[in-house]
Write a structure and sequence with these properties.
single chain, about 170 residues, alpha/beta, Protocatechuate 4,5-dioxygenase, Chain B, three-stranded mixed sheet, 6 helices, 6 strands, about 30% helix, globular
């Protein structure tokens, strides 16, 4: 099945016109490089804001300021704001690509992905807000979108980490 995650929040939570979006994202990245408290990567992970880009761009931008050179795969994890996920679940769908106003992003897959998670992943704004920052990069890694539920006990975290093999 060819599952494409469309840019559902473009035009509402951020510009849908490519030139305006590119300007918003690249200006946020440039501004983050000039802040006194800017900490250079490379990063292995980050907890990023996910409100509309007009509000969250300054919190997302530092993660992307040093580019994504050498990164082949980037996993974007989010809580679910709209779907009720069962406890101890890492939800991922077999996406073929992710659409942005700046072009499509290629994907990679987790071994536990299921078609039933496509709709919740499509509707999750927290997953979408970082995609324009990836789309402006010179070197674009493959991405995977996934959502986490809450954990019933600490040993489940190791189980979920093992599901990240692809």
């Amino acid at each position: 099945m060819n599952m494409i995650r469309i840019a559902q929040y473009a035009g509402a939570w951020y510009p849908d016109e490519p030139q305006n979006l590119r300007s918003l994202v690249t200006n946020a990245i440039l501004a983050s490089e000039h802040r006194a408290k800017y900490q250079h990567g490379p990063y292995r992970f980050a907890v990023l804001p996910h409100a509309g880009l007009f509000y969250s761009k300054d919190g997302i931008a530092p993660f992307f300021a040093d580019g994504l050179s050498g990164i082949e795969n980037l996993l974007i994890l989010s809580p679910s704001h709209y779907a009720s996920l069962p406890m101890d679940v890492l939800a991922s769908a077999p996406l073929s690509k992710c659409q942005t106003p700046l072009g499509n992003l290629e994907t990679f897959h987790l071994k536990n992905e299921e078609d039933k998670w496509f709709s919740p992943i499509q509707n999750e704004h927290a997953l979408e807000m970082v995609l324009p920052f990836i789309a402006v990069q010179k070197e674009k890694p493959k991405i995977c979108l996934a959502m986490l539920s809450h954990f019933s006990e600490p040993k489940i975290i190791e189980k979920m980490a093992n599901q990240l093999d692809h």
